[in-house]
Write the structure tokens for this entry.
Amino acid sequence: MEIVAAIITLVVGVLADATIGISWNMRGIGTLLGVAIMGAFILWAVRHPKDK
């Protein structure tokens, strides 16, 4: 799960910087989205623990 979360975060961050960052002149939007997505993955993992 951690590998998938890291890959998704990297892809979304790079795509956001390449598309939104250039067209709307918002530098660093990829970093903000990356942090938000990783935070969502962490919160989901904490709130939905696996059964032991």
Summary: The radius of gyration is 13 Å. The chain is about 80% helix and 0% strand. Residues 21 and 27 are 5 Å apart (CA to CA).
